[in-house]
């Protein structure tokens, strides 16, 4: 599975490439186009296991239409809309439709067939808006979006009061625990505090509240996010545990199930990417040398020099898979991508252009070939 907020994903024997003109199915070996679906600037593509979901904003409203496509042949299996909102999981499409008087209904449909599983009032369903360790364009499991009745796929109703604050930045599900994160520090707080609250599904009160911390830029400013938006991640982690910083500026891994810190790093640094197996750390959130740490233990696996591109640059991208790590760099106005072997830290290549996707044995690089045209190189590494 590819990583990064990218335009390229390899699904089976097909590379799916999405841009503002089309979604393409391409043979990764030859580059031969296999199929094409028209696309627009605001369209989005979700990778849901062996299928993709192409979401399209309507021209006059914020409503969404979508198609479920088999990437093996480009065939549309079913489509629906307009609806107010769409959330895709590995086996379902959850649609929200709101009628007159702001009455909303949430419906679960089978991903492959479109068959309706259930349809409930919006007030009776609480859906998480994020999932730990799930990197766009990939989608979470359904169990990471809502807690269901045991032996059933219908969601438990939200508590009437208490529980995690729904006004937080992110809401996530870990097992049968509902988690909320608030990344806006309290007034007077200078520690980049992120407040994490938890409650068991069906409970009417919080189980615990803890503090973790966001990283800082080189100028001392709080980053607030625990994962850069360029990664395609909301929270770096493995589904249960997340990467964050300590109040002293060191990386840590925090367990959302127990509300406890698993480990703290020995040296200062800010987590900037990871795949649940390893954690990529930079000296500061926006600049500095790189280190790759073992996600389970915090042990430093290898280090690499500063790639020379600040994190706020539009060209800055990172990606981590089980076997490869890629980071953006630049010399003057010339961007490039560095690819490393995740196990050893050996640099496998330096490619001019912008990172468009990364897998365990490939990297996709975009570069300007002529005006208003982006050429994509698919490279085995």
Describe the structure.
It is built from no helices and 30 strands. It is mainly beta and 381 residues long. Among the domains are: 160-306, Lipocalin, CATH 2.40.128; 312-381, no CATH class. The protein has a 4-stranded antiparallel sheet, with no helix packed on it. A 4-stranded antiparallel sheet has the order 5-6-7-8, with no helix packed on it. The radius of gyration is 21 Å and the shape is globular. The model is unreliable at 1-6 (pLDDT under 50).
Summarize the structure.
InterPro entries: PQQ_rpt_dom, Quinoprotein_ADH-like_sf, WD40/YVTN_repeat-like_dom_sf. This protein has 381 residues and is an all-beta fold.
Q: Count of helical segments?
A: 0
Residue-averaged pLDDT, rounded?
90
Contiguous runs where pLDDT drops below 50 for at least 5 residues: 1-6
- Globular, elongated, flat, extended or rod-shaped: what is the shape? globular
- How much strand content do the residues show? over 45%
Percent helix, as a range, is: under 10%
For the record, give the distance between the C-alpha atoms at the N and C termini, rounded to a whole number. Answer: 15 Å
Structural class: mainly beta
Order of adjacent strands in the largest pleated sheet: 1-2-3-4
Task: Give, in order, the helices and strands.
Answer: EEEEEEEEEEEEEEEEEEEEEEEEEEEEEE
By DSSP, the count of extended strands is: 30
Kindly report the CATH topology of the domain at 160-306: Lipocalin
The CATH class of the domain at 160-306, by name, is Mainly Beta
Radius of gyration: 21 Å
CATH architectural arrangement of the domain at 160-306: Beta Barrel
Can you summarize the main beta sheet? 4 strands, antiparallel
InterPro entries: PQQ_rpt_dom, Quinoprotein_ADH-like_sf, WD40/YVTN_repeat-like_dom_sf
Protein name: Pyrrolo-quinoline quinone repeat domain-containing protein
């Amino acid at each position: 599975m590819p990583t990064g907020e990218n335009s390229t994903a390899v699904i089976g024997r097909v590379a799916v490439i999405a841009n503002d003109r089309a979604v393409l199915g391409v043979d990764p070996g030859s580059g031969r186009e296999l199929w094409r679906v028209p696309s627009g600037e605001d369209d989005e593509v979700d990778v849901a296991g062996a299928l993709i979901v192409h979401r399209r904003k309507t021209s006059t409203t914020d409503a969404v239409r979508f198609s479920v496509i088999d990437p093996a042949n480009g065939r549309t299996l079913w489509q629906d809309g307009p609806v107010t909102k769409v959330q895709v999981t590995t086996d379902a499409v959850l649609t929200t439709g709101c009628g007159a008087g702001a009455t909303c209904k949430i419906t679960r449909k089978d991903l492959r067939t479109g068959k309706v599983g259930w349809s409930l009032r919006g007030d009776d369903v609480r859906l998480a808006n994020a999932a730990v360790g799930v990197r766009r364009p990939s989608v979470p499991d359904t169990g990471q979006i809502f807690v269901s009745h045991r032996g059933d796929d219908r969601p438990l109703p939200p508590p009437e009061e208490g529980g995690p604050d729904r006004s937080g930045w992110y809401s996530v599900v870990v097992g049968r625990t509902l988690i909320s994160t608030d990344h806006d520090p309290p007034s007077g707080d200078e520690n980049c505090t992120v407040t994490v609250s938890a409650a068991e599904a069906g409970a009417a009160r919080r189980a615990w509240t803890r503090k973790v911390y966001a990283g800082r830029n080189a100028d001392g400013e709080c980053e607030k996010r625990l994962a850069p938006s360029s990664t395609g991640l909301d929270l770096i982690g493995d589904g249960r545990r997340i990467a964050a910083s300590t109040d002293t500026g060191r990386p840590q891994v925090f367990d959302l199930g127990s509300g406890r810190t698993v480990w703290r790093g020995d040296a200062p640094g800010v987590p900037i990417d990871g795949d649940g197996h390893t954690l990529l750390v930079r000296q500061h959130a926006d600049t500095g040398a790189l280190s790759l740490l073992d996600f389970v233990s915090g042990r430093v696996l290898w280090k690499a020099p500063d790639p020379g591109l600040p994190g706020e640059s539009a060209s800055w991208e990172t990606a981590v898979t089980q076997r490869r790590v890629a980071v953006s760099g630049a010399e003057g106005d010339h961007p490039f991508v560095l690819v490393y072997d995740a196990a050893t830290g050996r640099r496998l290549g330096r490619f001019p252009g912008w990172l468009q996707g990364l897998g365990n044995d490939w990297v996709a690089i975009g570069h300007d070939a002529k005006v208003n045209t982006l050429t994509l190189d698919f490279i085995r590494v």
